[in-house]
Amino acid sequence: MLLEVDPAEPLPLYEQVAAGIRAAVREGSLHPGDRLPPAAELAEALDVNRHTVLKAFHLLREEGVLEFRRGRGVTVGRASAADVELHELLRQAVALGKRIGYSRKELARMIERGE
Amino acid sequence: MTVQGDGTDGRSGSARTAWVGGASNWLLAFGSLAFTAVVIGLQWQSLGPVSLALLVLPVAVLLVSRVRVVAGVHGLRIGLGPWGRPSRTIGAEQITSARAEAVSAMSVGGWGVRRKGTLTAYLVRGGECLVVTTADGREVAVSCDDAARGAAVLDSDR
Question: Is the ipTM beyond the 0.95 threshold?
Answer without folding.
Answer: no
